[in-house]
Design brief:
The chain has helices at about 1-15, 25-35, 55-65, 75-85, 100-110, 120-130, 135-155, 165-180, 240-260, 265-285, and strands spanning about 20-25, 40-45, 50-55, 70-75, 90-95, 115-120, 185, 190-195, 215-220, 220-225, 225, 230-235, 290-295, 300-305, 320, 325, 330-335, 335-340, 345-350, 355-359. The protein is of the alpha+beta class.
Length: about 350
């Protein structure tokens, strides 16, 4: 974590800017930079020092776990920030303008008399840039979360049957991830069967799955502060030729997109690989979302693999690959893996079969 703080300091202060100090207030920044999860705490980053001010609820835990940043017990936050800024000759503070609310900004501005708060954009930009490339520890954490998610899914398949509702299936999947040690689920688990599977982000309902249904399950575990994200679609009984064709088209699109992932590949070009296959299979206009996104301390972070995305894949990025086809009022399918971009391609963090499973 100390290395991340040093990288942030280099990014913020290698060139002169509007601010000579920065406030860290988001839970995401705390988790990424300090390796510490909490609902409170304020970071203060200067060119030659970094501090974390936190109340008594988290103080002892923070002292034990945080390195590369001095932990201070919060007593009077505004006065403590002013004293530290005076000690390091800081007059202007930048903030996380992408996450700080207007009321938070106004509150700090009123309390920090003698200091100027600015929205120079450098802090949020620097954090986003640093988080694009995962280090070894981050990749290991994401891989562990993904492995846990797959284990939960494999266990779920043993009880999945006709007559279960979408809500029941989601609950069983969530329970298994928790039982295996997940801190939480990465997002509300999506279970969409029958006509509901035509909605990419459908909420689980009381619909009971029946013969011939496709069931799309999009889920992931949160483990050690890092997210997993995967999607599998299975069938109850025999789905029929049309649904099999749809499924095979999505699988082919996903596999070809995975082959195209490598350092230097344009984000939009990788999306185009999958989209071309889906369009030319007769499903043009039925793949309405992007091919994928970055995953880390947030479930959705950069980069975004979409038709209009700019930029290229780089070694160390962790991205999803999740093409789908959705036929309104009928059915749909999505298949999703998480991959790490390597020096010569990508490494898939998923290992469960993607052949259409008929239960």
């Amino acid at each position: 974590m100390e290395a991340r703080i040093q990288k942030l300091q280099k990014a913020l202060f290698s060139q002169s800017g509007a601010a000579n100090g920065y406030l860290l207030t988001s839970s995401v920044a705390r988790r990424y930079l300090l390796g510490f999860s909490s609902t409170a705490g304020t970071g203060l980053v200067m060119e030659d020092a970094a501090y974390f001010i936190v109340d008594f609820r988290y103080y002892e835990m923070a002292c034990r776990s945080i390195q590369g940043c001095k932990v201070i017990l919060q007593e009077n936050l505004a006065e403590q920030i002013k004293q530290l800024c005076a000690r390091h000759h800081v007059q202007t503070l930048g903030v996380e303008e992408q996450t700080m609310t207007l009321s938070e900004f106004d509150g700090f501005a009123a309390a920090l008399t003698g200091l100027t708060l600015v929205l120079d954009g450098r802090l949020s930009a620097a954090l986003s840039h640093l988080r694009l490339i995962k280090d070894r520890d981050e990749i290991q954490a994401i891989a562990a979360a993904q492995a846990l998610s797959e284990e939960a899914y494999t266990d779920l398949l043993g009880i999945l049957r006709e007559g279960m509702t979408e809500k029941q299936i989601a609950l069983e999947l969530d329970f298994r991830m928790r039982r295996l040690g997940a801190e939480d689920v990465s997002f509300e688990t999506i279970v969409a069967a029958g006509a509901h599977s035509a909605s990419p982000h459908a909420h689980p309902t009381d619909y009971a799955v029946r013969q011939g249904d496709l069931i799309t399950m999009d889920f992931g575990a949160l483990l050690n502060g890092y997210h997993a994200d995967m999607t599998r679609t299975v069938a109850i009984g025999e789905p029929g030729e049309k649904k099999r064709h749809l499924y095979q088209t999505v699988l082919t699109a996903q596999l070809e997109a995975l082959k195209a992932m490598a350092p230097g590949k344009e984000l939009s070009a990788v999306d185009r690989v999958a989209r071309h296959i889906i369009d030319h299979a007769g499903y043009k206009g039925c793949f309405g979302h992007s091919l994928g996104h970055g995953v880390g301390v947030e479930i959705h972070e950069g980069p975004n693999l979409a038709p209009k995305s700019r930029g290229v894949l780089k070694e160390g990025m962790v991205v999803s690959c999740e093409p789908g086809i959705y036929l309104e009022g009928m059915y749909g399918t999505r298949i999703e893996d998480l991959v790490v971009i390597t020096a010569d391609g990508c490494r898939n963090l998923n290992h469960t079969s993607k052949d259409l499973l008929c239960i």
